[in-house]
Amino acid sequence: MEEETTYSFAREVWGRYRSSRSAMLGLWLILLFFLTAVCAPLLANQLPLLVKMNGTWSSPAFHELLAPDSTEIFVSKTFNFLLILLPMLGLLKLFCRKRKKIFRVLALTGAFFLLIPFLMSGSHTDRTPWREKALKLKNGDFALFAPMPYGPYETVETPYSPPSRKHWLGTDHAGRDVFARMVFGARVSLAVGFFATSLSMLLGT
Fold first, then answer.
1. Beta strands of 27-184 (E only): which ranges?
2. What is this structure's pTM?
3. Adjacent-strand bridge partners of 144
4. Structural domain of 165
5. Dist. CA 96–CA 103, nearest whole Å
6. In a domain, 112, yes or no
7. Dihedrals φ, ψ of 140, to 5°?
8. pLDDT tens figures, 47-79
9. Is the distance from CB of 69 to CB of 124 less than 8 angstroms?
């Protein structure tokens, strides 16, 4: 009886929330911002997502997910962990629709084993000039890059370059791609916002 009351209250709150267009718009914008932050390595990355070379397949970008070359390594690892975990949970939910207990056990077990390589790996820097190397690949070999094939920390152009097909939003004062900086900056913004909100709730202010 108590569970039914709680569920009804949650439905009522959700119904009122959905009735507000501005609230729903804000929710969708937050979700879009969150997805952008989680999927940042798939949107902007100096490393190829997939490489076929001499009959061998590899993913340099995936290796960096476990050991990101970042100044905010904890934030980067947290979002990289979510990038792998969320699709995994989605697939588990799809195959365990009517088996909630099995889903919970598999989800917790999978999250635990997925967390281990993130905790065991340090920072790793791949200095391979993949963009130049990809131009020389032949005989069916290829390298698949993110839509923006530049990282947020590498100097790739002269400072303050205007927007172009190569750099959609131009470059900053250090010659770094602005789009890549903004995409990865979403991670830091969300982390700071989450920490500040959690702290205020904990302190009761």
1. 50-53, 56-58, 142-144
2. 0.87
3. 50
4. 153-205
5. 6
6. no
7. 85, -10
8. 999 999 988 999 999 999 998 988 889 999 999
9. yes
